[in-house]
Amino acid sequence: MSDRPAYWRRHAVPRTRIEHLANEQTSVTADTVLRLAKAFATRRGVWPNLQTAYDMRTAKARIGGDLAKIKPVIEKAA
Known about the structure:
Layout: H1 6-10, H2 15-22, H3 30-40, H4 46-69
């Protein structure tokens, strides 16, 4: 346990959770959102918004070719 920074140890955020988030190996959970928002004095919405932006970027990269083939159901107004 001595390898964990004191702040995160006091606030029960496992070192591995932070490492997995930083290495894009896991998504941010509601539990982590609440802890990060409190720790960094941010709005809770910041963290899930960052996760959603990342998820959208990676999904677009993965299915971009399929998206290009989809025709709108409703045409844009002129």
